[in-house]
Amino acid sequence: MSSLRALVIGSGLVGSEIGDDLARSNTFSEVVVVDAKAENLARLKGKKIRTVKTNVFHGSVLTKLLEDSDIVCGALPGRLGFEMMRKVIGAGKDLVDISYTPQDPFALDSLAKKNNCILVPQCGVAPGLSNICVGDASRRFSKVDAVRIMVGGLPRHPRPPLNYQFVFSPDDVINEYTRPARIIDQGQVKFTPALSGMGEMRFPGVGELEFFVTDGLGTLPTSFPNVNEMAEYTLRYPGHARIMESLRTIGLLDKVLIEFDGKSIEPRRVVLELMRSLSRDSGKEDLLAFRVEVRGRMGRRLGEVRYQMLDFYDPRLQATAMARTTAYTCTAVTHLITQGKIPRKGVVTPEELGTDERLFRFVKMFLKARRVLLRIRSLSK
């Protein structure tokens, strides 16, 4: 058995499954999982797991935890992710992180190289696995023309009016409805309002869904600046987007404090708490619908590669589909690092991993071993 030690920072719905999956592996002798909330740490089931209840941003807590760690997985909400990444990389530890931070992860490239370590940022399901798929598709074409990513975590048994349940950080979910989305339109990087570009589609095994633009491309526009069209869409049951758009329009998703009955209230926090209650009514069972379409050309011939996945809640492990697909992408890349398969230091994006056929195949088979099946279909014109 290996003597490697892993550190997982954050034990929410996804972070706890990252910890459990690493603990099920023979690669690690110990997995330390840290979180500020005892109820989050209570989710963990692995025998090799040691839990630490603390705030990693207090004093030298994180420095001490890093001293005994060989590799780190980050699973904090986006607003906290960048500072944590900076501290981990500053300590010279390899890191695979799933948070979607407002800051540019490439800003940490020189620090990672200076400290001879690897940072794989935004390595969840989308961004993350979606980027890996785009990277794989790019090596099949001489030029990539268009990228369309469509992903949604949905309840198996939707309850009106929202027909939704939280399957990752609630604050980050609300950001999907408020943060302007970066896209590439006619070869130019642009920003478009979240919830724009609404449409409907049928997803096999699920039925009718709606889609709308969200800010989930991650590092793709930087890695593929010459693509003509690129956008990421979130999938929901029909009608959900209009409700969220109405809430946003009247200010209920705002962080700006308002005065009411002598008290300062943040509308967004109120909506979050109400949505949590509705989310619990939908139960634990969820599904993850995932599709990545990449169009390009090889010489004069046009073609398309489609990556599709439909995953469901695992009752045996009590793991949501969102947790499974996000966590196992993260742990797959963690194993790539511990096995020395990533050849360079610095910021290594998920799409860069996908451009290497061996690394893409490793991730795909790693997911398959956990019954997460990614299907690939090539279409020529």
3D architecture notes:
With 381 residues, the protein is an alpha/beta fold. It folds into two domains: 4-125 and 323-372, 3-Layer(aba) Sandwich (Rossmann fold); 129-321, 2-Layer Sandwich (Dihydrodipicolinate Reductase, domain 2). 33% of the residues lie in helices and 30% in strands. The protein contains 13 helices and 18 strands. The chain has helices at 15-24, 38-41, 61-67, 78-90, 109-114, 129-138, 170-178, 220-223, 240-249, 267-281, 321-338, 350-354, 357-369, and strands at 4-9, 28-35, 49-53, 71-74, 94-97, 118-120, 143-155, 181-185, 188-192, 199-203, 207-214, 229-236, 258-260, 263-265, 286-298, 301-312, 346-347, 375-380. The strands form four sheets. The chain has a seven-stranded parallel beta sheet with strand order 3-2-1-4-5-6-17, with helices on both faces. β1, α1 (15-24) and β2 form a beta-alpha-beta unit. The protein is globular. The model has no long low-confidence stretch (mean pLDDT 94).
State the gist of this model:
By secondary structure, the protein is an alpha/beta fold. It has helices at residues 15-24, 38-41, 61-67, 78-90, 109-114, 129-138, 170-178, 220-223, 240-249, 267-281, 321-338, 350-354, 357-369, and strands at 4-9, 28-35, 49-53, 71-74, 94-97, 118-120, 143-155, 181-185, 188-192, 199-203, 207-214, 229-236, 258-260, 263-265, 286-298, 301-312, 346-347, 375-380. The longest helix has 18 residues, at 321-338.
